[in-house]
Amino acid sequence: MIANSNELYKLLNLLLCPEGFVRKKDAYYRDHPDFIVCLGVGKSQWGGQYGSTMGCFYKAFLKEKKGFPKFYQAHVRFSLRNFVDQGLLERVFNLENNEFKDAEREID
After folding, report:
1. Which of 35, 53, 91, 100 holds its CA 20 to 30 A away from the CA of 75?
2. Whole-angstrom distance, CA of residue 81 vs CA of residue 85
3. How far apart are the first and last CA of the chain?
4. Do 22 and 29 form a contact (C-beta atoms < 8 A)?
């Protein structure tokens, strides 16, 4: 069961790294010839709520050509809130929410 940020990142590493993603602090990046895909995961400064941002950078638009830019500066960006019920996201990503038992948080 995911109960803290270490466990969250262990799960993300398990899912994303075999797919070619590289973790840099709170973000995962995957390099492609014309763009860089990113997934940023961050904790809210107002509590235990985690959120994520998915997006990409077009290499032709990047001023600096090496390294990975900050994920929140992506040229195209979406949040999970664009695709999934916001109430469910708040319940699942709030690691201070103790309503989940065993692996229920991951299944929801």
Report:
1. 91
2. 7
3. 12
4. yes
